[in-house]
């Protein structure tokens, strides 16, 4: 992109990355806050159902941000030392965005839910992508951290390896949150249709409480990734 008043392609990539960071962390905090009302047994089922709808609606922001964080980050890499090695041809970066937007489409279909063949396929596909990315990115991050000149780059990009590791762990934490929430749906459905019982309240409370360590881990990892991206500790690139 041709520079106009100092704003070029790199500036746009930085802006997009910052916006995604803000919506990811801010949306996650909103989801967490709404979940506090779901745990309140003194509220009626209707009020708690509204909190569930708010939590689900707000969750769209971190869901989109997590997916687009990857192509956005790779776009930033394309403007750095790694770009000279791997992104000489623009089609490769375009391919990254096509893959990222495809994953986003699958994730949004899964987000809408439903009991259709497409919804079930999207849910399985989204989980496969998340498991594969968390493992693959973590492996790449470890290599970047331990290799002398990872990927032929001699500007000490270990900070980038640590940032990629943080992102990979965020994806894994998100998968674990889904696993912990599996009992929540049936329990909350029973609450709405049949009312509150000690067993239902324990199931709802236990499901959300088991998610909390993974939520706190995501917050910490997102902040760590942001700090690494700003400080770039040890980098020799100027």
From TrEMBL:
The chain crosses the membrane at residues 12-39, 60-80, 86-106, 127-147, 159-177, 214-231. Keywords: Membrane, Transmembrane, Transmembrane helix. This is DUF2269 family protein. It comes from Nocardioides cavernae.
